């Protein structure tokens, strides 16, 4: 019996999913699944971490997608069949974040439907969330996605499955669609349900005793093995077979993703490498270049060309050139000071020839790591450089790098305490630990509460809490080909 789980939330579905991406992939492999799709809410943040596990198992089908939310429509799980479809998913996620509250999406179904070409629609698997309070526009979705639109059949074992199946059968018969099996996974093993309860409590900013039906009714949203799924779907075996069929049609792999530098500002008839060599030659007049320095430059340029890093140096040079033009103080630092090319281009100020610095500490073919040039700008004018980047490359291709804020044990302990109704107030995590016994003396679970809270806080350690913005990292890319 083969089975592929097509709806899986990691802990990058913030305060909903209760397992790390690697835990989910490792458990899926352990349980004998043929594949898994990571489909976090309005994001693909967990995809790279899952891929680190999946890439070592070529027979395991690793699928990529997300669950998009809408103001006026039930959420849609989208899974990419090819690279162009994955690119479109990422564009939709980006669009959903514009002018929206943190962690929320802002899409309307009409804009979504009209914004997709037939070619992209043919390469997206679409699975609506049928338990949503918002409607599903089955007719419009089928008209666009045709055979790629499926009805999710999940047995939540909550006492409502029979009624739910009757409703889904009506939809299937009305629109001529097919069922696809899914356990709607939100954690890798059953005992993580307690952690999820606390995460939902944090999300709703209410203690567990007050959030009622926001908490899942049972702990069945874990990874079940193919035999368990076969038993659940004994009356609908074709829904299980469909998961394998869908997975076989998905050819996209994260290994296809390659970063591409902007190149439109490189003059005609130049490659990135030849333009870098031209700039180095042109800027030698500003530095002392003797025979020793020239030998270093020749060696570095040769290695930069072999490793295809010229675009990176051009990008950094362009930023430094603009800072100098605006008379903004800036200075390259770190191992980049070992580079004669950086010195001649004015990125760094130390002559590596005079200091006998080793270039291979900065770039080495054997190490196989891309270069890393840190540049400090005077903080009062750093925003001018950021705005230059937006102006030069456009806001659809440039942006501040996101940072993932994660739980440490103490911060998790404090949040878990609030979930169990401990009167934390404004106490810091340190003071809370010291006063814990006094605070819970009247709590109905006081005898077991500390062990329970400590266990959950330990499980939450390293969980992503929310996204932030890195204070000094900027991202830009070439035009999208999708």
Describe this protein's structure.
The chain is an alpha/beta fold. It folds into two domains: 219 residues, Metal-dependent hydrolases (TIM Barrel), CATH 3.20.20; 137 residues, no CATH class. It is 42% helix and 13% strand. The chain is built from 19 helices and eleven strands. Strands 1-2-3-4-5 form a five-stranded mixed sheet, sandwiched between helices. Strands 6-7 form a two-stranded parallel ribbon. Helix 11 crosses helix 13. The two termini are 36 Å apart.
Question: Layout of helices and strands, plus pairs?
Answer:
Elements: E1 4-5, H1 21-30, E2 35-41, H2 47-54, E3 61-68, E4 76-80, H3 83-97, H4 109-114, H5 118-121, E5 124-128, H6 138-145, E6 150-153, H7 161-175, E7 178-181, H8 193-204, H9 226-232, H10 237-249, H11 272-283, H12 291-307, H13 310-325, E8 330-333, H14 340-344, H15 352-355, E9 374-377, H16 382-393, E10 398-406, H17 409-419, H18 429-439, H19 446-460, E11 464-476
Parallel strand pairs: 1-2, 2-3, 6-7
Antiparallel strand pairs: 3-4, 4-5, 8-9, 10-11
Helix pairs in contact: 1-2, 8-17, 11-12, 11-13, 17-19
| CATH architecture verdict of the largest domain | Alpha-Beta Barrel
Shape: globular
The overall pLDDT, averaged over residues, is 94
Number of spatially distinct domains: 2
Spatially, the strands of the biggest sheet line up as 1-2-3-4-5
Any descriptors?
single chain; alpha/beta; 2 domains; five-stranded mixed sheet; 19 helices; globular
Compact overview of the structure:
The chain has 19 helices and 11 strands. With 482 residues, the chain is an alpha/beta fold.
